[in-house]
Amino acid sequence: MQNLLRKAPLTLVEKSRDTLTIDGLKCYYVNDYFGVRREIRAVDDISLTVRKNEIYGIAGESSSGKTSLIKTLAGAIRPPMRVVGGTVNFNFGGEPIDVYGEPQKMRAARWRHLSYIMQGSMNVLNPVRRVKHAFNDFAFRHMNLDPVAFRQRVEAHLARLHLDPRVLEAFPHQLSGGMRQRLTIALATVCEPEFIIADEPTTALDVIVQQDVLATIKDVQTRMHSSVIFVTHDMSVHAAITDRLAIMYAGRLAEEGLTQAIFDNPQHPYTAHLIGSLPRIGDTRTRRSLQGKPPALSDPPSGCRFHPRCPIAVDRCSKEVPVMQPSATGGRVACFRAGEYKIQ
Ligand SMILES: Nc1ncnc2c1ncn2[C@@H]1O[C@H](COP(=O)(O)OP(=O)(O)O)[C@@H](O)[C@H]1O
Ligand SMILES: [Mg+2]
Known about the structure:
Layout: H1 10-15, E1 18-33, E2 36-51, E3 55-59, H2 66-73, E4 81-90, E5 97-98, H3 103-109, E6 114-117, H4 131-138, H5 147-160, H6 177-189, E7 195-199, H7 207-224, E8 227-231, H8 235-241, E9 244-249, E10 252-258, H9 259-264, H10 269-276, E11 325-326, E12 332-333
Parallel strand pairs: 3-8, 3-9, 6-7, 7-8
Antiparallel strand pairs: 1-2, 1-4, 4-5, 9-10, 10-12, 11-12
The structure holds adenosine-5'-diphosphate (ADP) and magnesium ion.
Magnesium ion binds next to helix 2.
């Protein structure tokens, strides 16, 4: 899978402008049980930027806060989720949009500039209605086309994604899982958005269909020069499709950098573990799994949240919070012993 899809040339990625800037973002689930307040700190002080024309990956174990982070970006916040700090700004070439300062501008930008393929999004297709209705409901009013031209545009877009136009007349249950997932991607991209957020779009699929879906997303991204945030816990998928990669652990960033650099030389012990646990052809050694479980985000460990599981933790790690700093490989890392842990 590693070499299946070509990556955008580095220079191109480096020169392009920032389309998303997140600064000090904090997003908690706040519950009140009979006057006792309980907070789950799912996103706890995250800063990052995503550039035009790049695929930015977000990795990390289940429950590390990936879905919470991208819901916050898309302005898809519902109680008990609350943004308690920080800013999110999009720049689609015109005026920048402050997601939480200007919710009405953000609503206008959804679909036209930004599309969000949610985790488990095959469910956006209503089981009792033909597929074409989903396109009419979601995309028609954003495209300023008459119905005939709209239908032509949709059919041309489906053809690019290797989908027969007859799928429009089908009911979702008549299609395979891979076709349904490609349809949700078609639905999310028919308006040619500048920014695509995809949350675990390939997780429920078998490997062959997975490759098909990855190629589809890459194809759309290359043609439109869009920015993509691609979320998955599967590191081999990140290796295949992302240009840059952020590793999340317990609601925080552990490391960020060019995907290639991260795979070649991970700086954070957690990243090294994620990469070291990937199977490799010809390697018969037993893989050692990480001890322990990710922490409860209602009561995270002091200092570095990874310290109770870290193989090289020292005293300082339980006392001080490491902040993201420039790493030796040109990215950023939050670790007092960055680069010291090597994959066995
Ligand atoms: N609606 C919710 N109410 C309370 N806690 C939630 C809710 N949704 C998610 N969480 C918690 O937030 C944390 C991060 O979850 P999530 O963002 O879904 O992680 P990931 O996508 O990395 O698996 C988890 O501890 C999860 O239990
Ligand atoms: Mg998730």
